[in-house]
Write a structure and sequence with these properties.
This protein has 243 residues and is of the alpha+beta class. The chain contains seven helices and eight strands; from the N terminus they run E-E-E-E-E-H-H-H-E-E-H-E-H-H-H. Helices cover 38% and strands 22% of the residues.
């Protein structure tokens, strides 16, 4: 097995005294793990940073063997880890992607959207510039894995107007009128998710609450607790930033 491709670093786990097991996302080959010799070294640790773009070279004798990986830095996002909100955002989106995706299955839309998401975090002067995109990325990832939400029309009436809620059970949208008697049981549907735009902060926080419910229920069940802990840290920092 030999793969050579640009990849986003998603997760790094130290292995043994000198090496590291690194999980990367490629456009054509999906999620690819690999063992990096010397991954603990001061030379390679800045390269093996979640969010970085690298040129990876995976080699293994069989498809079932963990490949050896060499990684050449293409673009570093290490400076963003000096800023609490960008650092928390990168920690979350990379941890989510590494935990949710099966290995070796291509998800080109996820690769492209995650690349754009990381670029937005890097370019925006404040979290307001990427927070709505983060909600949309979570929705895309769920849809690509078969857990998409039906936000296009009201589940009760079929109307596409005045959508205001989402059923926490079915993941389907509900109009304001149809949902009014049950509003205490429903999740708010922020307008930017069906009408476009970036949304204001209350809408973004509603969006994170919405996606968080379904990610925890459908995608991250049985995953290590530290994955959802990364999201909790991000949401807490966003709350503090907009309070």
């Amino acid at each position: 097995m030999h793969i050579r491709a640009e990849a986003l670093i998603l997760a790094v786990r130290m292995h043994g005294e000198h090496g590291a097991v690194v999980r990367c996302l490629t456009a054509e080959h999906g999620l690819q793990p690999g063992y990096v010799r010397g991954g603990r070294s001061t030379r390679l640790r800045p390269v093996l940073q979640p969010g970085n773009l690298v040129l990876g070279d995976w080699r293994a004798r069989t498809d079932s063997q963990l490949a050896g990986l060499t990684a050449e830095l293409v673009h570093s996002r290490a400076p963003l880890f000096e800023q609490p909100l960008p650092a928390a955002a990168i920690d979350w989106v990379t941890a989510l992607t590494a935990a949710a995706l099966p290995e070796a299955q291509p998800y080109p839309a996820i690769f492209a959207t995650l690349s754009a998401m990381l670029a937005a975090i890097e370019a925006a002067p404040a979290a307001r510039g990427w927070a709505a995109a983060l909600v949309r990325y979570e929705l895309l990832l769920m849809a690509e894995l078969g857990f998409g939400l039906d936000l296009g029309q009201c589940a009760a009436t079929g109307t596409t107007d005045d959508l205001a809620w989402v059923s926490p059970n079915s993941g389907a949208a509900v109009s304001a009128a149809a949902g009014a008697p049950y509003r205490h049981r429903l999740l708010p549907l922020p307008a930017f998710l069906h009408a476009g735009g970036s949304g204001d902060w209350p809408q973004i926080m509603d969006g994170l609450r919405l996606t968080g419910h379904f990610l925890a229920r459908d995608v991250l069940t049985g995953r290590p607790a530290d994955v959802l802990a990364a999201r909790a840290r991000l949401v807490d920092r966003l709350h503090r930033a907009v309070a």
